[in-house]
Structure formats: C-alpha cells, structure tokens
Amino acid sequence: MIEGKNRTICICVSDGDTYYSKLENLRIEDFVRTEDINADLVVTANSETLSALIQRKISPVKAYMTGDLKVKASLTDMLLLKRLF
C-alpha cells in the first residue's frame, strides 16, 4: 500500500515553525522549515502535543480524538500515516 506512494508532508507547530518533507519510495526525507503549508498531508499540533507524541506519552489516536492533533489529508493518506507511525 505504501510502496510507490509519493506524498508531501507538512507539520505545522501551532506555537512554533512549520516543517516540510517528502515521502518517496518508503522513505521520509529530512524535514526543513518552510512557510508553505501546501502539502498532501498537513499535520497540526502545538509543541507540547508533538513532544508527547514523539516520546510516546500519548497515542496519535488519542491526540486526534481530543482535538490536540489535526490532520488534513484524504482518507487514503490518513491510512498511509497510520501505517507509517
């Protein structure tokens, strides 16, 4: 399902910077700062939530269900994110 899927990913830190990356051939490139939020997948959260997600203190599903994590993507891309993380 993931192989052959090339997507752009934007992570918007609501109290910080915005970062952009590409997913190509099962590989996520390094994130770089950007002002552009046009991407196939846009993930928005504050720095506290993102830190908790990275440290696995909260699950992405819980953060999403409580509104702390917002994702703008097609259903197919949302399923892609779930498989990646």
Automatic annotation (TrEMBL):
This is SCP2 domain-containing protein. Gene3D superfamilies: SCP2 sterol-binding domain. Residues 7-83 form the SCP2 domain. It comes from marine metagenome. Pfam families: SCP2.
